[in-house]
Amino acid sequence: MFVMGNILHGLATVLDTVLTLYMWVIIARALISWVNPDPWNPIVQFLERVTEPVLAPIRRWVSWRMGIDLSPMIAILIIVFLQYALIRTMMDLAVRMN
């Protein structure tokens, strides 16, 4: 049973790292959007391609027309919630399996 606990702990650690990195990518895109970036820049294109599948549905769901895009903030809050709810639950379950 301890093998499954170790596998679950490893999976939770990897998932936590991926969510943290994705949160930083969202932050980078939000910061770059403030300075009117060159749309042909490869870094800008990468950030847009990686974050748009998550931010576009949030943008449609919120659909506020205040001139400010709150979708990055909402996405970050969702990521933090997943880190506290899902990752910690997986870690606790892994500890109990050991």
User: Any idea what the shape is?
Assistant: elongated
**What is the C-alpha radius of gyration, as a whole number of Å?**
17 Å
> How does the major sheet shape up?
none
User: Helix count, per DSSP?
Assistant: 3
Structural class: mainly alpha
- What is the chain-wise order of helices and strands? HHH
| Strand elements, count | 0
State the helical fraction: over 70%
Mean residue pLDDT:
92
Please indicate the percent range of residues in DSSP E strands (runs of 2 or more): under 5%
Q: How far apart, in Å, are the first and last alpha carbons?
A: 7 Å
Q: Indicate the low-confidence ranges by residue numbers.
A: none
Number of domains: 1
Care to describe what's here?
The chain has 98 residues and is an all-alpha fold. It has one domain (2-97). Helix content is 82%, strand content 0%. It is built from three helices and no strands. It has helices spanning 2-33, 42-62, 71-97. Helix 1 (2-33) packs across helix 2 (42-62), helix 1 packs antiparallel against helix 3 and helix 2 crosses helix 3. The longest helix is centred in the first third of the chain and has 32 residues, at 2-33. The model has no long low-confidence stretch (mean pLDDT 92).
